[in-house]
Amino acid sequence: MTIIDGKQTAEEYKALLKQEVNVLVAIGKRPPGLAILLIGNNGASETYVANKLKTCHDVGFNASLFRFENTVSESEILNCINELNFNSSIDGVIVQSPFPNHISPQKINEAIHPAKDVDGFHPMNAGRLQQNKPCYIAATPKGIMQLIEKYKIETQGKHCVVVGRSNIVGMPMSILLSRNSKPGNCTVTICHSKTVDLASYTKRADILIAAIGSPELITAAMVKEGAVVIDVGITRVADQATKSGYKLKGDIKYDEVANKCSFITPVPGGVGPMTIIGLLQNTLLAAKNAIYN
Ligand code: NDP
Hints:
This protein is α/β, with parallel strands linked by helices. It has 2 domains: about 90 residues, Rossmann fold; about 130 residues, Rossmann fold (3-Layer(aba) Sandwich). It is about 40% helix and about 15% strand. The protein has 10 helices and 11 strands. Strand 5, helix 7 and strand 6 form a beta-alpha-beta unit. The chain is globular, with a radius of gyration of 19 Å. The termini are far apart. Bound molecules: NADPH dihydro-nicotinamide-adenine-dinucleotide phosphate (NDP). The site of NADPH dihydro-nicotinamide-adenine-dinucleotide phosphate has 26 residues, from helix 10.
């Protein structure tokens, strides 16, 4: 069994991003600019945003954080996005989820200009992805595709089961792996909360991707011998034995599944670091599009 090391892979991609920023700066261009909007003080969101800001800093991007109270109105957020859409030093705009209930994720996603939508959540980018046209690919599936490539995992003709159908992970993942490309050419089954007898599907997966948000839902009995297992889920589970009071858990029961599969991503240190790389790659692409077009 091989552990897919997302942390190490992300370091390699970070070095490449840094080189590209150095080239831009050497020819007199500005570094890529990313604006991150953060609403409220959700602990997990704070951590994700801090990691994104740090990685931006490490590779030489300009990153700006826009903080809002939980009580901020939807129109204030939309106004901020609108200003950033017109700000020529900003290439990418993202709003960290989850949002308070009074703010519509759909309105937010659609307010970001598709050319600055480096999370790839705007319907324009999602539609272009589905039609195999150039677009910003949602960061998590983009990162997973790069892990599959890096570890030379054969996908053609394989049966891939994606558990979860969200617009940000499950759905784009299923599109990428079913495309006529390399990696790709899988036969994909999508499962969700209304799937009856989930195990009967997961047990037939050559490649199993879990993007559920339900800690350790997938047990060894649900996984085929020798399968490739990608765990997207990250949930904070209370654990008084740790300093923070919680532990991060994936959707896969790692200890038992690891003994059975051919490849597995750990949580943390698997998909998470590559999600940030996907985001920064999209931002670099947006910067190049802005600079050269
Ligand atoms: P969503 O809540 O948007 O989607 C979860 C999906 O899982 C839904 O499609 C839901 O089905 C399905 N689901 C829920 N319960 C079950 C079940 N018992 N059996 C089968 N399917 C089920 O979550 P996201 O896609 O945003 O995120 C999923 C997980 O991945 C979360 O833990 C999140 O924190 C993590 N994540 C990690 C990232 C990383 O970088 N590692 C990045 C993004 C997310 P239905 O559609 O029917 O409701």
